[in-house]
Write a structure and sequence with these properties.
It is built from 5 helices and 6 strands, in the order βαββααβαββα. It has 141 residues and is an alpha+beta fold. A 4-stranded mixed β-sheet has the order 1-2-3-4. A hairpin with a 5-residue loop joins strand 2 and strand 3 (35-40). Helix 4 (79-89) packs across helix 5 (109-131). The longest helix is centred in the last third of the chain and has 23 residues, at 109-131. It is elongated, with a radius of gyration of 19 Å. The two termini are 38 Å apart.
Amino acid sequence: MDFTIPEDASVFEAVQKFAAYDIGCLVTTNESGGISGVISERDYISKIALLGRVSKDTLIKEISTKSSNLLTATPHDSVDDCVEKMLSKDIRHLPLVDDDGHVIGMLSVKDLVKTMVQEKDETIKVLSDFALGRGGHYGAE
């Protein structure tokens, strides 16, 4: 899945991609392919729909969040680090970039919550096993 879209594309094209891939945010790229920002469903609602603008006539770069204000995550970041980043800016998506700064994915609040629940379930299993005398080893049967 390509989570990028050129900043010179129309907002309508971004909305089409949101719908086609059931996603809520895309990383915008400049002419040289570098990250220029992000566009989200929130941007569409607050900067197009509520203002009566036309998505087919508006370029993404006119309404996107610019890279100077952009937070990203790397595969080295913990779930807690990512949650802190999202909470600090009241955002629901974090572009995931590799060590060279290339977009390799998009993290959503939903992704992080699922991971946190899975981690908690695993901890509960270990503690339950220990409490029931099955040993304190992870996944002991």
